[in-house]
Fold each of these.
Amino acid sequence: MRAARGLQLRMADLETEMAATPLEVRLAALQQLMGVGALAASGTLNGQPVFKLQSEEEAAKLRELTAEDRLVLQEVEKAGVSAISTKELRYRAGGLPQQSLTKILKRLEARQLVKPVKSVNSGNVKKYMLHGLTPSKEVTGGPWYCDGEFDYEFIANMQKVAMGYVQQRQQATALEVYGFIRDSGLLKSTDMLRPADVDAVLQALVYDAKLEMTAPTIYGDERRFQATPKLASIEDFARSLVSVPKCECLTCRGLEAPGGCYVPCPNLSRWLDKAVGVATASRSS
């Protein structure tokens, strides 16, 4: 076990240190150590099996596990933070019956070796991963999901806080808004949000015409967000464009003055003048 001081034991190390020991004795010792949980399979390296040295606590959890238990646990470990579905587990474990797999997973759960998670990316399908791991963003859906459901209330609150901060400061970067939200105590955990998540919230407000975004300069300045000027004027402008004026000439081809000169429709002219006036006032404010 001297080669396992780095917490891993390669088969090549075992063959080197126990070269004088018959192969069957080595394999029997290896099997016994795995049986009591002192060693656990940990994949391969250069085509050679690698085993991991377990702590006493880990060894206690692995004792008396069957070969099928260990096979399922090994496949769950390979999946890492992406987790693995029961359907894929059955395939990778050699076609285990669903009833047997269910019992194995319950046994591993009871020993806190694996845990179930809902995968938002797979339609809330239940997947399994090692008990001590944190599922990836692809599995949980990131901060915008809670228990597999899209958290509209949380997003609305983040937008409200971000909007208020930008309006108070007149201008702010995504990193500044993130720092304010992180230090405000609004989050259950400071790990819930990343600067990129806050940037996504701010860009959504830009798409909703509630904020404006400045482009980064050639000097490496960060893009900044600022409140849009006089949203009421913009709404009036939009309403003026979608309203349809009444046409007095009926044909919408214009009125003919004496001498055959074309005269624009007076109602349409007033409508256009009003729309241009609202747009000009919105840009100048």
Note: The longest strand covers residues 39-45.
Amino acid sequence: MKPIERRSPVARSSCALLLFLLLPLAGRAARQDPAAPATQPGPSAATAKPKKVWTNDDIEPASRASAPDPKPVAVPAGKAADATAKLAAELRSKLEKLALQLKDTEKQLHELKNFASGEGNGNDSMQLHKGYNMEPIPQQIQKLETRRQQLAEQIDALTDEARKKGIPPGELR
């Protein structure tokens, strides 16, 4: 026969505490009838208004006056598509050229501003292809900023022209 194991007083007290806490919960669960619906506080079923279920019969069909007007078709689709595609290609090439000029101008402007603030460009070698400019740095910066503004206005004007001609913005990219 095996000897009976004795538990420590801590283990006994924790088991007793667990039983003490779980017994009232088990009693509540046994008293509650799972088949009976739970009553909730609030309006009773007799006083609650029935909800309206909408069907297609309840909604009037839309009238012709509420429908948007279709856009008039002026030119056959084949010729209009060719003309629009050709115009889009021309405007795209112009925009690409202007974008390259704008990028170049911004690069020069950045280099001049760095030079004016005393920072070098990190290239100590002599750049013979650039030449020497007698114009003061602030005037050069002002000219480049004016040029950048002009290029940005030209780009905006081309995109506005394309928009007015009905060319989607995605075709210009």
Note: The CA atoms of residues 105 and 147 lie 7 Å apart.
Amino acid sequence: MVKIFGVKNNNYRIETKQNEDMDLLRTLDAIFLKKRGYIVKLPPFGSSVATCMSGGGDSVANIFILLNGFHYQVYPFFINRGQSAYKWEKRAVEYYDKVFLKKFPNLYHKTLEIKINTPAREYKDDLREVKKSFRAIDPSSGQYLRHVDSDMRVNYYFQVSIILETLKGGMI
């Protein structure tokens, strides 16, 4: 079991999560072990790492753990994909850049902004129309995925379908 920082009673076992497909996860683990000899391997203590910085709670917490827990040299990047919340996300990234540069001046490096047209501008208007009518349902629970942006839901289900088809021997 993975030890979670600062947690006295580690009750975060993946096996207890309602929406996890343990058979699929065991199959993927076996593939990783066979192909590369390990499932997950952290870089050595003090290594350089690149990570996404959105300015949100998950990426900020992740960066703090990388800096404080592993003493990694952290090179964050922020993806400007033309999102509607760009102004606020950028403001949050700039704020946390200052915080981390002050607290970890020898480990944290200023966030690099990467501009990517995703989805491609040619498709963006069409996708907005699709997004208005699309409601994703988690096939395992039947619950609406309201916490995930529609574009991400489409991408998620596309990736999951490719993985499942691959595991069944239907693709690749």
Note: Residues 86-103 form the longest helix (18 residues).
